Amino acid sequence: MRRFVADLSRNLTSQRRKKLATCALRHRTCSLFSSSQSQSSVVIPIRFLNTTSVDPSMASDYSGTPVTLDTINPKVLNCEYAVRGEIVTLAQKLQDELKENPGSRSFDEILYCNIGNPQSLGQQPITFFREVLALCDHPTILDRAETQGLFSADSIERAFQILDQIPGRATGAYSHSQGIKGLRDTIASGIEARDGYPADPNDIFLTDGASPAVHMMMQLLIRSEKDGILCPIPQYPLYSASITLHGGTLVPYYLDESTGWGLEISDLKNQLEAAKSNGTSVRALVVINPGNPTGQVLSENNQKEIVEFCKKEKLVLLADEVYQENIYVPDKQFHSFKKVSRTMGYGEKDISLVSFQSVSKGYHGECGKRGGYMEVTGFSPNVREQIYKVASVNLCSNISGQILSSLVMSPPKVGDESYESYFAEKDAILSSLARRAKTLEAALNSLEGVTCNRAEGAMYLFPRIELPKKAIEAAKSANKAPDAFYARRLLDATGIVVVPGSGFGQVPGTWHFRCTILPQEDKIPAIVTRLTEFHNGFMDEFRD
Amino acid sequence: MSKPLDYENLNENVKKCQYAVRGELYLRASELQKEGKKIIFTNVGNPHALGQKPLTFPRQVIALCQAPFLLDDPNVGLVFPSDTIARAKHYLSLTSGGLGAYSDSRGVPGIRKEVAEFIERRDGYPSDPELIFLTDGASKGVMQILNATIRGDRDGILVPVPQYPLYSATISLLGGSLIPYYLEETANWGLDIVNLRQSVAQARSQGITVRAMVIINPGNPTGQCLSIANLKEVLQFCYQNNLVLLGDEVYQQNIYQDERPFISARKVLMDMGGPISKELQLVSFHTVSKGYWGECGQRGGYFEMTNISPKTVEEIYKVASISLSPNVPGQIFLGLMVNPPKPGDISYERFVRESKGILESLRKRAQIMTDGFNSCRNVVCNFTEGAMYSFPQIRLPPKAIEAAKKAGKVPDVFYCLKLLEATGISTVPGSGFGQKDGVFHLRTTILPAEEDMPAIMASFKKFNDEFMEQYEDYRGYSRM
Question: Aminotransferase class I/classII large domain spans which residues (chain B) (predicted)?
């Protein structure tokens, strides 16, 4: 039984609720989180894979076997993750089609704007980082003279430094379950340099990307479906999926689109109280800053209010800060929640805070490496022991990813041989991202019925589309959520892949899609043209 | 002041789970190491940490993949042989953006194809890349499959005792029930089908639905290699009892005797033919962490599904997609492992020399250790037929057991702590793996360098004999 405590202030007729519920059960084309008492529901993710046909003969072949859909863990069945969902599967099929029959469509390539995967779209890795990683992967060449002709001197030096922190220089050995100590020292120094407040290497847990760290915390926090986690709507669906997998309840709080996706503490408080009155024990608050999919950067004041709120209400603050280096507007700055808390005079005894960082985003975009960490502060020693224990079952995260995390938190400095080229690469990437964000935002805002908040940070735009009634009806007949219908049409007409807003959650009756700002700059004009043409055609077809 | 996340309000499943491999003994050993004591870590199968060198070829290839700009450098050939350059280009071409891009959530398709081809060469039966998922180490794959299987505490998973505690820990975390089946130490840790049947019957009488059976072949910590007959028995048993078989085959390259070479559960299943081969559900696990590769730190592994319905595969894919993708370098290591240099390749001779060297040495060390343990009068040690561990049975005298009780410790923990303090040898007590009541073991790896082995075994024997002198009474020692 899927349940979460939803916002009770929106209206939804019981008929619509029944329809959505039937849709979920019969077609699995939409997934619904609704409590039996709620008057509204937030439609979050669209059913993952193409489930158009259920071949009855297939069912009978497997029906006697121990692991079938009937006997699989229901939490697995219930969880959803739209970022790699149905629309992506369709896009891949289209891509195969294009390969077999070039020219069969009005476009000649698929443009994946569904996922924050920069290097798959041509972004180049930071040279210095790759030099150091290559040397750490193959340390025997460090002593050879020829190596100096292939690598920069400071990358060789850094590799030596790192390898000296690894017992026996054995990058192929399992490390300490929290990650190599020397690398954690480096990261702690990097955090201190960033925030102006000390960080303890023993608070750091290096993980295979930030996602496993999020799962770990959910596992610790969630005892049963009575435990709730406050999540922003719209949210990055790792959170909803993880909460479902761990058997908990997602408690939504709505970001306000009309105020640049702002967060009102009073709203937060209302959601908390509503959840409590429903018997939910709310354990933590997730904040994504900069936001995904919404791209807003929180003001420092807002952050202070959030810290105060968590302290007062005894919530663990889960701060997803993986986009901390992606800020595109001069009037906003990233402040870590750790820094904000310490600035307020709050320490270990005052606030339980988990901060997540990753090598996948920023300007480095090293998604495939699976590197990241969580910094865990404000927990008792015996809870820390338990966190360590869970980490130890998987032994350790991949060493190359650990090394990369330390490089990201301590890149070349002024005066280092590689500094200039490093800085040039970083600056080129970040300024290009800022340009692309602006161009795409302007293009979206110029479309009929579309409004798009600016991307202050992160890697996405999340425009809202006012879909005409005819379009909504056509979507219904096609058994699709309206934004999924739009996204499908967009794909078929242009080859552009976006993720329907229902994959992230949105105020019911509103429709969005998430589009990354990652396609290479020279492709952006074509994207804008194609998108505009498609949208105009779509509106012509469905306008009231 | 109470905190939002306190020990009291932590998920109970987390509190219940135990993982001795990095538990009490390891933590104590780390403390002593910090104080300056020389520690020999034999607690985990971590070859490179004990001096085993990485194979040269894969490291060359991966370094080139990390820094593809090297491939354009005219001097690259001075440092990297041409076949490594070709391989790096090959794997880079299989990715969609190099090492830094998320791959397909199941792993790079081209690499999964190479794994399928490896399986076909090994077993003689075709394998479908669509049913092969690459993971961040085999452990992640085990967790994913158990997560899909276990619905609640009424679901039971048959696990061998002794077992590698990833299974017990994961079952705990997922809120399932572990159903032990005991391996028979006196029969070379063989499978006891009667005990297996009894375990299942008992579980069912308690209202538990037995869902799956785990076999570890070669065994961990026990090292035994299953015979074809044994494997057939297991497969039939799973088929008759409607269980999915989870075949942990991560040590398939580590075989130290010639009577029972490795044979995969899948091959035996396919050889059996008939309905069982089309219906018995099997998931097989492999890794780059063991074998002669020992690349634990890369976190590379895969699982292959047999006779799992497409819809179930979809669901498992869905959960994999939430974590986006396994790490790409680890995937490339897997590709290289299933596709090593061939005769005629520039790197072939060196590769064979390095691999053979490692395997031959492991075989020798397996023998040295077994013999060393058996030379102690209160120790009985089955030969390490495979894997990386020795699991001697230590017979403790009643006085020692009493002393342990007084110290608030399980007897084998007590023994292992004393061993650690006296010699610096850090082992894992048998209780971390499960054992029959009143029987005590410890697990050590066979990984310390060959030249250090005699000294280590001598050090152990000295400690053990002194321990026995201290605690033995003249009526003899306790067997049970």
Answer: 88-448
